[in-house]
Amino acid sequence: MTKILIIGATGNIGSLTAAALAARYPEKSLRLTSSRASGCAQLREQYPAAEIMCADWYDLTSLTAAMQGVEKVFVVTPDFVTDELVATNNMIGAAKAAPGLLQMLRMITMPPGLTAADLEPEVLATRCGANLSVVAKPLLDASGLPVTYINVASWIMFNLPWFLAEEVRATRRLAMPAKSNTPRLWLSEADIAEAAAKILADDAALHLGKEYMITGSRRYAFQDVADMLSEVLGENVSYADDDAAFRRTMGENFNTIMTYFKHETRDYAHLMPTDTFRQLVGRAPVELSDYLQTNKAMFI
């Protein structure tokens, strides 16, 4: 029986991928990790049939133990807090000590061809999105490991309730600073997890050495999102160039993410939608309007 390891299975994408594997591919054996004792307890409750271990990006011994006896591993590192140089080198060391490993699936988020040399030092220092990927990918490419990449070159839709829901509920305004506004491709977190689960469940040989860039189907700026919310809620939602609500939401990370937007609004501007998600899972990705309708309660 194939055993699949998810490092950080309580994280946003890691948890959804674990759920997708358990629901769609129950014949697969899961090993799930968290760096926190409370996270491990949560996973044991959610997945009684899975093997649960504590492992930390910065503890090579724990990563090496987690890798033993698995055929596949899914790696997603969190924004803002990850020292990718340390975390990825530890992951490579642990993987090389796991002789049965057939595939490492790494989630990245970056425009094709982007390198660390293309980014200003202050942007690289944000440890967000592509600024993690441009560090991790060259290390993995040079490692000789059996790596597959799933490249989420879109805004993940869960950013909407996280960034915007509180202000929409309170004032019926979609309030975001104009410097962060650009027509973006959008992809739902559940779609990312479904694509990752499909790759992990397949024969590893089908995907080794490949990079799958998955995107939403259309670009939408914040005014477009406000118009969609107006239709979903049956009330006018206006877009406002106002950073106060976003500043409250992001707290100490506000300046960091505004620096990240400097890169994101520039370097993704000419990225074209792909049909890769449909090719992987056999259907179109969820549209942003449908996502908002499904999650309407968050904005009421």
Describe this structure as you would to a colleague.
The protein is α/β, with parallel strands linked by helices. The protein folds into 2 domains: 3-155 and 186-213, 3-Layer(aba) Sandwich (Rossmann fold), CATH 3.40.50; 158-184 and 219-269 and 287-298, UDP-galactose 4-epimerase, domain 1 (Alpha-Beta Complex), CATH 3.90.25. It is built from 13 helices and 12 strands. The model has no long low-confidence stretch (mean pLDDT 95).
Per DSSP, the total helix count is: 13
Any idea what the CATH superfamily of the largest domain is called? NAD(P)-binding Rossmann-like Domain
| Number of spatially distinct domains | 2
The assigned CATH architecture of the largest domain is 3-Layer(aba) Sandwich
Number of strands: 12
Question: What's the shape?
Answer: globular
Largest sheet: 7 strands, parallel
Low-confidence stretches: none
Gyration radius (Cα, Å) is 19 Å
Order of helices and strands: EHEHEHEHEHHEEHEEHEEHEHHHH
pLDDT averaged over residues = 95
Question: Which class of secondary structure composition applies to the elements?
Answer: alpha/beta
CATH class of the largest domain: Alpha Beta
CATH-derived topology of the largest domain: Rossmann fold
Biggest sheet: strand arrangement: 3-2-1-4-5-6-10
Q: Termini separation (Å)?
A: 45 Å
- The amount of beta strand, in percent, is 15-25%
Helix content: 40-55%
